[in-house]
From TrEMBL, chain A:
InterPro entries: Bact_solute-bd_prot1 (IPR050490), SBP (IPR006059). The lineage of its organism: Bacteria, Bacillati, Bacillota, Bacilli, Bacillales. It holds the Pfam family SBP_bac_1. This is Multiple sugar transport system substrate-binding protein. The keyword DNA damage does not apply. The keyword Signal applies. Residues 1-23 form the signal peptide. PANTHER family: ARABINOSE-BINDING PROTEIN-RELATED, POLYGALACTURONAN_RHAMNOGALACTURONAN-BINDING PROTEIN YTCQ. Keywords: Cell membrane, Lipoprotein, Membrane, Palmitate, Signal, Sugar transport, Transport.
UniProtKB/TrEMBL annotation, chain B:
PROSITE patterns: ABC_TM1. The chain crosses the membrane at residues 12-34, 69-96, 108-128, 157-179, 216-239, 259-281. This is Multiple sugar transport system permease protein. It is found in: Cell membrane. Keywords: Cell membrane, Membrane, Sugar transport, Transmembrane, Transmembrane helix, Transport. GO terms for biological process: transmembrane transport.
Length: 468, 291
């Protein structure tokens, strides 16, 4: 009897463990060495991207979505690829979850193979040794077609870590209909112009919008977007902090905002908030909120880049958002020269420690970054390839305006290690500034101290700086 | 020796039956705790890890945001647990002896928010409280109260989060109290009635002491739950304004997943584990006493 009970228990345990072991079968997605198909070894890779543009070529296509381009690129790549039977799984992840997802997956040993994103957000992963160099897949033809400043922004140490695809210059966007309603016709730029206002003009525009914008149909509307609840859209906040001449970083790559210029910029932000020239409660408002408010005509001036601008226009055309006359403007500065920056967007390849997957990932990056048909999609931002910009300049006259703006570009990351972490110490200080918990002087001082501590720590751990 | 072998053979079936549970317990509960303690002594990068002793703890204790998170967490625990236990006792004692349908209605009404995901609740509150486009802010403006931003005020953000968390979770506690109160012997209430005790005296001297084991259990469970408060902070305030609503769990999350400081995050985890362990001692004691 006892023997029977023991046998029964052992059988039950075996069944249970067998069940567990079946359930724990390794998921073969993103693994190499799967079943052979058509005589070629199957290699499966993960391609991640944050939302960039909708559609393959543009958002007007039926069923256009953020992953349309990469799904098409994956199909085209797999069809012509002769080394392996490549299977590419495309996944769109939210921009504000990027670091969380990447860190969790890096810690768990399951990073994506390819990541398509703005380079500024990915520089830390180069410093941490999580990305592989792409220098060997960049040929002379690409170097000639893509200008040097783009290559320099994707080069860390001696190697290229991102394949530039397009760039997204950051500007302001304004509702010209609201300007007209407030009697600001003379301040409206051309449809294909990036209007430059002086700082005095800009302050007058804000004041006029506040005082003269009619309640109908603009009830509850505010002149300008201001937000600081998290790090999203913080590059515009960084630009505002340079409005009075701050260089932001010193020659050693440390933050140098704690001076009269930095404090003056912080004081200016607080003053426009207190004067009611911005949406209320910027400390609790996100850039997403601000973007939504602009599209609903609750804000006259907001932030944008070519992708956001194109998506907003597509939403207006499709009836998803109210139609109005949206135009572009530069961020003004005290000197009169506008402030502008750009996000170079491109693909990187993660160090998955699987040679075959890395090989396929690099081949895929090279394929979609050089394929004559696929690179045309870079027109959704501003193409980094001169050939594409030239081909589409008739279709998008703004390409010339962005080009004219290029001389005012500033490098907002300073190429410092720990930039992602650095972003996390800015918005708490802006919140303290807006709520009055800190004076402008104290806010810039505390940001500089906290930021430089982040930079110092990350320099010590950077593979580029030889810290480990 | 022979006796011990015999005893082992006699109990082998039992050991085999608890083996899967023990394996899961060791793998998914004990191992992470041990690994967390180990990681808290290391500086971890993507490519390697380096033993740094107590440096992670030292950096924690030199960070004012950590102390702010600790203080905020204590305030949340004290306020939310007191509010939850106090209100649940009040609501349960008011209805437990009423008509069964009425009791069911009350239970259901308070339990609905518990069934809704905390993410959804936080998003709804975020929509209501957004200072620029939220409904409450809009109504306040229309009513002439000016700009209202309770999430952006250093003095208002904590009470708002306390209220949102309390309102979402109190249903569970009310259910537990009503169940406990229904189980209190009726003869005690009849004796009190014969003695001419008032409703308040009955609650004060019979009901509350009778449900004391439930109160201990509810308090401990709520303390542990509130110590880990995260979703509402992440979605409603992002720890702001100026770290005014940051909690230990949110601080841990930031270090682990935003700052990539896994060692520091593990140190926070170890400290939270110790706090939880200390707070669980009364419950463990009472359980051991019962056995």
């Amino acid at each position: 009897m006892k023997r029977k009970r023991i046998l029964a228990a052992a059988a039950a345990l075996t069944v249970l463990l067998a069940g567990c072991s079946n359930g724990n079968n390794p998921n073969t997605s993103a693994e190499s060495g799967g079943d052979a198909s058509g005589g070629k070894e199957q290699v499966e890779i993960k391609v991640w991207l944050t939302p960039q543009w909708k559609g393959v070529l543009d958002a007007s296509e039926e069923g256009a979505d953020y992953d349309s381009f990469f799904k098409r690129a994956a199909e085209k790549f797999a069809a012509q690829y002769d080394k392996y039977d490549a299977k590419l799984n495309v996944e769109v992840i939210a921009g504000d979850q990027r670091d969380q997802l990447l860190n969790v997956n890096l810690s768990g040993g399951t990073p994506p193979d390819v990541f398509f994103e703005s380079v500024f957000a990915m520089g830390d992963y180069v410093h941490r040794g999580a990305l592989v160099p792409l220098t060997d897949i960049v040929d002379d033809a690409a170097k000639q077609d893509i200008a040097d400043n783009y290559w320099s922004s994707v080069t860390f140490g001696d190697d290229i870590y991102f394949y530039p695809f397009q760039n997204n210059p950051g500007t302001l966007v304004y509702n010209a209909d609201m300007f007209r309603a407030a009697g600001l016709e003379n301040d409206i730029g051309g449809e294909n112009e990036i209007k430059t206002w002086t700082l005095a003009d800009y302050e007058r525009i804000l004041m006029t919008l506040k005082e003269k914008l009619p309640g109908t149909p603009y009830a509850g509307a505010y002149p300008m977007a201001l937000y600081a609840v998290n790090n999203q859209g913080d590059t515009w906040n960084l630009a505002y902090l340079r409005m009075f001449g701050s260089t932001f970083f010193d020659a050693e790559g440390n933050i140098a905002l704690d001076d009269a210029n930095g404090a003056k910029a912080a004081a200016w932000l607080k003053s426009i908030k207190d004067a009611g020239y911005t949406n209320p409660g910027p400390e609790s408002v996100s850039s997403n909120d601000a973007n939504g408010m602009f599209q609903n005509q609750q804000l006259a001036i907001s932030f944008t880049n070519p992708v956001l601008y194109a998506n907003a226009k597509a939403d207006m055309a499709s009836g998803k958002a109210p139609k109005f006359d949206a135009r572009l403007a530069n961020i003004p500065s005290e000197s009169g020269d506008p402030l502008t920056f750009t996000y170079v967007v491109g693909a990187s390849v993660f160090q998955t420690k699987d040679e075959k997957r890395i090989e396929v990932a690099k081949d895929f990056v090279k394929f979609f970054s050089t394929d004559p048909e696929l690179v045309k999609s870079s027109k959704n931002g501003i193409p980094v390839r001169s050939s594409v910009a030239e081909a589409f300049k008739g279709e998008n006259p703004l390409f010339a305006a962005y080009d004219a703006n290029a001389k005012y570009l500033f490098n907002f990351t300073g190429n410092v290690p720990g930039y992602s972490q650095l972003r996390e110490v800015l918005y708490p200080e802006l919140q303290a500034l807006y709520t009055g918990a800190k004076t402008p002087e104290q806010a810039v001082k505390d940001y500089q101290a906290a930021g430089n501590k982040v930079i110092e720590t990350n320099k010590a751990n950077s593979v580029i700086f030889g810290g480990k | 020796m022979r006796l011990r072998k015999q005893a082992l053979q006699a109990n082998l079936t039992g050991y085999l039956f608890i083996l899967p549970q023990m394996a899961i317990f060791l793998l998914f509960l004990v191992y992470p705790i041990v690994e967390g303690i180990r990681l808290s002594l290391y500086q971890i990068n993507y490519q390697n890890e380096r033993f740094v002793g107590l440096d992670n703890y030292a950096s924690l204790f030199s960070d004012p945001v950590f102390f702010k998170a600790l203080l905020n967490t204590v305030v949340f625990v004290v306020c939310i647990v007191l509010l939850t236990v106090g209100f649940a006792l009040f609501a349960a004692s008011a209805v437990f002896d009423k008509n069964a349908k009425y009791v069911s209605f009350i239970r259901g009404s308070y339990y609905i928010p518990v069934m809704v995901s905390m993410v959804v609740m936080s998003m709804v509150w975020s929509f209501l409280l957004n200072p620029a486009s939220g409904l409450i802010s809009y109504l306040a403006r229309e009513a002439g109260a000016g700009q209202v931003n309770v999430l952006g005020g250093g003095k208002t953000v904590m009470p708002v989060i306390i209220f949102v968390t309390f309102a979402t979770n109190v249903g569970q506690t009310i259910i537990l109290y009503i169940a406990a109160m229904i189980g209190v012997p009726k003869d005690l209430f009849e004796a009190a009635e014969v003695d001419g005790a008032s409703r308040w005296q009955t609650i004060r001297h019979i009901l509350i002491p009778s449900v004391q084991p439930s109160t201990v259990y509810i308090s401990i469970i709520n303390i542990i739950a509130v110590l880990k408060i995260f979703v509402v902070i992440q979605l409603l305030t992002g720890g702001g304004p100026n770290n005014g609503s940051v909690t230990l769990m949110y601080y841990l999350y930031n270090n682990a997943f935003k700052f990539n400081q896994l060692g520091t995050a593990s140190a926070v985890g170890v400290i939270m584990f110790l706090i939880t362990l200390l707070l669980s001692v009364p419950q463990l004691r009472s359980m051991l006493r019962q056995t």
